[in-house]
Amino acid sequence: MKVRPSNIVLVPIVILILNCFSAISTAQDRDPDSETIEHSLRFTQGIVVTPSRREESIAKVSAPITAVTLDEIKRSTARDIPELLRSYAGVHVADITGNRRNYRIDLRGFGETASSNTLVLIDGRRATLPDLSGTDWLQIPLSRVDRIEVTRGGRGSVLYGDNATAGTINIITKDRTDTDRSVSLQAGSYSSFNVATNLSGSTSGISYAIDGSYNTSDGYRDNGDTNGGDLGTSFTVTPNQRLNIFTSAGFHSDVTGLPGELKESDLITGALRRSTLKLGEFAEVDDLYVIARPSVILGDSALAQVDFSFRQRDSEFFSSFAGGTFNGNTTIDTIAISPQINVSGPIVQLSNTLVLGVDASQSTETILNTTIFDGTETVGMFTLKKQNSAFYLHDEIFPHSRLGISGGYRYDDVNYHFQPSSPAGTDFDQHLATVGVNFNIAGASHFYASAAKSFRYPLLDELFNFFSNTIDTTLRPQRSNSYETGLRASTGTVSGEFNYFHVHSHNELFFNPTGGVFGFGANENLDGTSKRQGVELSAAGRSETLSVSGHYTYTNAKILEGVFVGRTIPNVPRHRSTIEFAFQPTQAIGVIMNGTYVGTRLFESDYQNTFGNQDRYVVINLKLRHEQDRVNTFIEVRNLTDHEYADYGVLGGFPVERAFFPSPGINVRVGTTLEF
User: What is the pLDDT of residues 223-252, one digit of tens each?
Assistant: First the structure.
């Protein structure tokens, strides 16, 4: 299925027409938005979240969790989800290619393997792919998002299974009962242009949200252009007080250039930061998903639901090298079903909530690779399949009104099938458990502690060798033990949170750049254990016109045994902090300034720790907003000081040397949103 992104520009136009008809038919007076300054840790004691696959107050969660609300999304300087999450505690974001096409989000200092250790969900559906491509952050534009829940630590593995060692990020799309019709236009540096529109509301037991967008940009670097669009819908039908049917669907398409790295020798010999040595390289993606979730209330204390989901992702990748070219076409089809029941009721007169369910999924990856070297064409066709099934339960009991104790168990089984291959498949299984406690000290102050076992199965293209058509029978699942303890407190105008984490991993999966029979690199398990520990601090305060918030994360990631004993995990900053000021002198005017500091970190793949550190950097952003009479206008300046830096550095080339993906300099964006 290939749809050219240029066709998607029609989507927002069609929705805009629908908006106009809807506005005419349901026109009504509305007061201007009376939003007050409020930041997220940030005074969120009453926010309802879903880290245990059911709704509960954030104050009762036995884990560090960040809930990003719709108001915060509207106020932020971010253009996409990774940029939004960059300003929160415990979240390290790297724009790998420097053009917002390939992001990596690292929650617990996993560096190169962060994408396969952080589980991303969209409306509860897995968005993390079973291969090395990880998560495509462009599949959900920020305009579709209603809120985001970031739960750090391994507790999510019991509930969701594979890939949740570092944490889970659940993106909830808009499905609102209030009427909202809008169209927005944005333009900025690098010939960037974006148009988006949405329509949401409810009528006769049906709530709906429809949105579309189109985006184009030349990008900061040569061959960094992008051209794409999105269409998304969600509907909730409530025939009666006991039955609810939720559906959601989305389609994303884009073609994006890949400027590649600049080696240190290239920069020394005169290559410009905005230049590329990879002219013509690109990636093209079409991504479609559908979710259906009927739920029914049983009796007075039980809720049963079944999640059905389907996703199809088509991607094409083209690159060149000395003497030839490579073209890869990949299709991944994923189908999943997850029945679940929630039971709330007293046990021996103690308040209790039980969640239990089954997960079953199948992902099939079809690959067609064409390599031309020295005039000779080689074609490879492969089919890789992963079948997963699991049973889980999670229970929370309250011996006292201030004390909650939770625990859970999961059995998880996976089967791999490969064609052509000898042997044709392999399988693994895992037993997991978690326990947590949450104590309300006083008012809005809570202490929590938790312990969890988590795991990561080998990815499809880690397990399968494309050159020999064989399975690496030596690879084993990665297992981790994680521990969290923390304190969150709020007085209404001042709030803060402290969290200590410790992750101990066995058989950690990674790419050893000097591994394999010939020393050219191989996917392996670390021949020992690794440890990650650190602290996360957050604080916020507000008055009627000013709010200030800040976050600091300390991460120490070490290899404890084996050939790399005593070495630091590459590409993990030990120190990272953010600060934000939001000033609202009047109801119509807002000024937001934020800054991010990222400390030194090793170059990716430098497991020997011999190539030195990537430079620390500070990036400052500024946004001015004006809202009046349903018109929201803004101007935004990113990298205000025009600081030269690179989010991402790696070892590359032959002989091996340091290489960089330069990040954009100072850039400007202006936009306006009209609400009907």
Answer: 999 999 999 999 999 999 999 999 999 999
- 30 burial type by CB count under 10 A (0-12 exposed, 13-18 middle, 19+ buried): exposed
The structure's pTM equals 0.90
Strand ranges (DSSP E) for 179-242? 180-188, 192-203, 206-217, 226-237
In the chain, domain spans: 5-675
- CA atoms of 349 and 352, how far apart (whole Å): 9
d(C-alpha 550, C-alpha 154), whole Å: 24
Give φ, ψ of 265 to 5 degrees.
-65, -35
Q: Which amino acid is at 604?
A: E
Mean pLDDT of 27-52: 41
Closest by Cα among 669, 676, 661 to 99: 661
Question: How far apart, in whole angstroms, are the C-alpha atoms of residue 354 and residue 619?
Answer: 45
What value does the mean pLDDT take over residues 284-303?
Answer: 94
H or E stretch including 266? helix 264-268
User: What average pLDDT does range 169-194 have in this prediction?
Assistant: 88
Long-range CB contacts (within 8 A, 24+) of 559-566:
559/526, 559/528, 559/529, 559/530, 559/607, 560/528, 560/529, 560/530, 560/531, 561/527, 561/528, 561/529, 562/526, 562/527, 562/528, 563/527, 564/526, 564/528, 564/607, 564/608, 565/528
Which residue has 């030194």 as its token pair?
Answer: 600
Size of the chain in residues: 676
431/453 Cα distance (integer angstroms): 9
CB 428, CB 414: distance < 8 Å:
yes
Confidence of residue 6 (pLDDT cuts 50, 70, 90): very low
Secondary structure element (H or E) that encloses residue 254, with its range: strand 243-257
β-pair partners for 370? 327, 379
Q: How far apart are CA 331 and CA 364, in angstroms?
A: 8
Of 397, 417, 395, 405, the closest CA to residue 342 belongs to 395
Give the chain's radius of gyration (CA, Å). 25
How many whole angstroms separate alpha carbon 353 and alpha carbon 333? 35
113 and 657 in contact (C-beta within 8 Å)? no
What is the DSSP track for 525-567? E-SSEEEEEEEEEEEEEE-SSEEEEEEEEEEEEEE-SSTTTTP
Span of 50-54, 112-116, 173-177 with lowest mean pLDDT: 50-54
Let me know: does 515 contact 521? Beta carbons within 8 Å: yes
Bridge partners, residue 261, by sequence: none
Residues sharing a CB contact under 8 Å with residue 326, sequence separation 6 or more, in sequence order:
317, 318, 319, 320, 369, 370, 371, 372
Given the structure tokens 């693994």, which residue do they identify?
A: 428
| Range of lowest pLDDT (108-112, 193-197, 342-346, 530-534) | 342-346
Task: Name the CATH superfamily housing domain 5-675.
Answer: TonB-dependent receptor, beta-barrel domain (2.40.170.20)
Integer Cα distance of 351 and 79 in angstroms: 43
How does residue 30 score in pLDDT terms, banded at 50, 70 and 90?
very low
Do the bridges between strand 425-442 and strand 445-456 make them parallel or antiparallel, or are there none, so unpaired?
antiparallel
